[in-house]
Design brief:
alpha+beta, Urease, subunit C, domain 1, four-stranded mixed β-sheet, 23% strand
């Protein structure tokens, strides 16, 4: 069977396709990598508090856990109540931390 003069051998066709895909490959990898959350992004999902009050005695009105050790305030509202360790996770760059005067 005679080959057509204009037909390319199969290995050359693969190279032509690879050349078309390769310039777009780094862009595709960057897009996919930015879609995968990393640990820093995951921890940033907890919005930091404006004020943390730690080493305190906080009465919660909860029958199961009537006393807490710390609380976090964001935009004038209490957003977390619990131990110093748990509430301390809401510490951010601009968070003011106050210790109780007990």
């Amino acid at each position: 069977m005679a080959r057509s003069v204009h037909a390319r051998p199969p290995h050359l066709e693969v190279n032509v396709i690879a050349r078309r895909i390769c310039p777009a490959l780094p862009i595709l990898i960057a897009i996919l990598a930015s879609a995968i959350p990393c640990r820093a992004q995951m921890s940033a999902r907890i919005a930091p508090a404006d004020i943390l009050i730690v080493h305190a005695k906080v009465y919660t009105l909860d029958q199961h856990a009537p006393w807490a050790q710390a609380l976090a305030i964001r935009r004038g509202k209490i957003v977390a109540v619990g131990s110093d360790e748990v509430v301390g996770r809401m510490l951010g760059i601009g968070t003011r931390r106050r210790q109780s005067c007990l």
